[in-house]
Amino acid sequence: MLFLGQVDEGLSSTDYIAVTFDDAVVKARFDLGSGASMLAGQSRLRMGVWHDMIITRRGPVLTLNVDGHSKSVTAPGLAEALNGNLVLYLGGVPPSVTLPLGVGAPSGFRGCMSNVQLDSQYLSTLPPAVIAGEGIAKCIPPLLS
User: Fold this and answer.
1) From CA 41, how far away is CA 124, in angstroms rounded?
2) Is the dihedral angle over the CA atoms 137, 56, 21, 12 positive or is it negative?
3) Could you say which of 41, 48, 90, 97 would form a disulfide bridge with 26 (CB–CB 3.0 to 4.6 Å)?
4) 52 by DSSP, 3-state: which?
5) Euclidean distance between the first and final Cα of the chain, in Å?
6) What's the pTM?
7) How far is CA 56 from the centre of its chain?
8) Could you give the count of Cα atoms lying within 13 Å of 52 in the half-sphere of its Cβ?
9) Does residue 70 surpass a pLDDT of 90?
């Protein structure tokens, strides 16, 4: 669903934040260069309805909030920043990008996203070079509510 990291074709990123769905559970993984940490949402999400999700990172602490339920994890080591020339992928990543071990979900995300922000800026206001994606199309959601 989301991958923010330094990407060199054919090489895996060591500094990254990745958010994926696994069996309707939101999972967030991140690595600041000293080892990966992972969070999982509290329960399976009901498909076909909108959900609120907020992912924040303050120094070495990553917080995942899904529909008002928060969990946090602290990265191992002393690093507190994502390093490198970061690229943000939404939806999926191109086949030429090697995801870090354990990130999973290479096939991407099927669904709709709305009001996505990065550093308090809506993605529609960021320069195109910052954002990439794979398999993104106009969303016409058949949502229940």
Assistant:
1) 27
2) positive
3) 41
4) coil
5) 22
6) 0.80
7) 11
8) 5
9) yes
